[in-house]
Write a structure and sequence with these properties.
globular, alpha+beta, 28 strands, 4-stranded antiparallel sheet, 456 residues
Length: 456
């Protein structure tokens, strides 16, 4: 009888710990990203209201056809940049910005074309605008904005798409707002799909850009700012994983075969060069390689070239990752997980396991871009891409969100925060005798593991 009572008491204690930990975990769950801007549809700041109305009437501006894809922030002038590629007709400007200093109750501001309206328009139909259709963008520490312009108008228009310019790297001087460099990329114009760019800007005059081509076959283009030259690197790790092509976002199912996509650079390693983390969108794997290999124009001729690339780890079956960015101070890699409407992180000093930072089926639907500014704030753009691909966006719903928060807040109470374990230990060492502390802590660990299994 006493044994049964003891067993029942033990079960009750375990249940209490499970319930308590569940509440504890729920309270500790951060989701700390804060909405800064949101739009049902994108609008632009025309010089005159009449010009905007005329653009709508002649269909050079079709609000439902405009979708933001890339973002980054230039803190010196408080500008948030958005790229808006011409995937469909009716995109009047494909690179724009918001003045972060403008005090307004309006969290859905009209965008200002960058650097001007004239950069996106032409006088004659045969002329080519300075900026055609950039996807992801990057602000470097040398006051420059980098954009990979596909040069294609109406990419989703099928056979009606038009190549207006060669695919190229555009570089802007953010102090003068001038285009200081246009470099045509060495590509297969029919098969290349440029997805992302990473900038190694440790030396402003000897900067290197790494451009992901998610096409078939995929490749990585390495561009030297100093020599104004570029070369392609190819590797099997850039390819897709066939089983990872199925996506389902809020019930909208689609397939993708985008290969090399996410790129992120670390701090300098012992050899004096940063590592480049990379992955395909259609994949669950993460890889890295030293940029010492990539910077060598003839590296592919070295016999052990292939062995210089490393497998970092494997994500779960629904964790295809899109854009990524690396927090150098925290040594944390952040991911967008479009299939889960989630932002995740990995502390690179630990075994490869990603952890949730933020998740929402409302304001994080298809996170597509993520960056870190020089004030250590993380910025995220979600854009309902699955709905855009499936038809026109619903003007009655909020479709686009920009979120931001200091990195320290984003990773607070996650495994990516370096002192998380110490916090847990301290919580259970504040009271009780020395003999009871280990028992309490072990009980907590056991119940925590069981609770996590039940919750996730």
């Amino acid at each position: 009888m006493n044994m049964n009572r003891c067993t029942m008491n033990t079960v009750n204690v375990v249940n209490i710990f499970i319930i308590g930990f569940s509440l504890f975990a729920t309270c500790w769950a951060n989701n700390n990203l804060q909405t800064k801007y949101k739009w049902n549809l994108i609008d632009f700041k025309y010089e005159k209201a009449e010009e905007r109305q005329a653009a709508i009437e002649n269909r050079t501006f079709i609000p439902a056809n405009v979708i933001p894809v890339g973002l980054d922030v230039y803190t010196e002038k408080n500008k948030l940049f958005l790229s808006l590629p011409r995937l469909k007709n009716g995109v009047p400007a494909s690179l724009a910005y918001i003045d972060l200093q403008e005090l307004s109750d309006n969290d859905s501001p009209a965008l200002k074309p960058y650097p001007s309206w004239q950069s996106h328009q032409t006088v004659n139909p045969t002329d080519v605008p300075d900026i055609v259709s950039p996807f992801h963008i990057k602000v470097d520490r040398c006051h420059r904005l980098w954009a990979v312009d596909t040069g294609i108008e109406g990419l989703l228009n099928g056979n009606n798409s038009k190549r207006l310019a060669p695919s190229r790297i555009l570089i802007f001087d953010l102090r003068t707002d001038d285009i200081i460099r246009k470099y045509a990329l060495p590509v297969d114009l029919n098969k290349s799909v440029f997805s992302n760019i990473a900038i190694d800007d440790d030396d402003c005059e000897d900067t290197f850009a790494y451009v992901a081509d998610a096409g078939t076959p995929p490749s990585l283009t390495v561009y030297s700012y100093k020599t104004n030259d570029a070369w392609q690197v190819k590797h099997n790790y850039f390819n897709i994983e066939p089983t990872a092509g199925e996506f389902s976002v809020l019930g909208v199912k689609f397939r993708t075969s985008d290969a090399l996509y996410g790129l992120a650079l670390t701090e300098k390693k012992d050899n004096g060069y940063p590592n480049l983390y990379f992955h395909a969108l259609t994949s669950y794997n993460e890889f890295n390689v030293s940029t010492a290999i990539l910077r060598n124009k003839t590296a592919t001729e070295v016999p052990d070239f292939y062995s210089q690339f490393n497998v970092v780890g494997l994500r779960n079956a629904d964790e295809q990752a899109g854009s990524t960015v690396y927090g150098k101070s925290q040594k944390v890699l952040f991911y967008t997980l479009p299939n889960k409407n989630e932002i995740a992180c990995w502390k690179t000093s630990k075994n490869y396991t990603i952890s949730k930072v933020y998740n929402s089926p409302v304001d994080m639907v298809y996170p597509i871009a993520i960056n870190i500014d020089n004030k250590q704030r993380i910025w995220v753009l979600s854009n309902n891409m699955q709905q855009f691909l499936n038809g026109q966006l619903d003007a009655h719903n909020t479709n686009f969100y920009v979120h931001s928060v200091p990195i320290s807040e984003a990773i607070k109470n996650t495994p990516c925060e370096s002192d998380l374990i110490e916090k847990i230990v301290n919580k259970f060492n504040r009271g009780g005798s020395d003999t009871s502390k280990p028992i309490a802590f072990l009980t907590f660990i056991a119940s925590a593991m069981l609770a996590i299994k039940q919750l996730f």
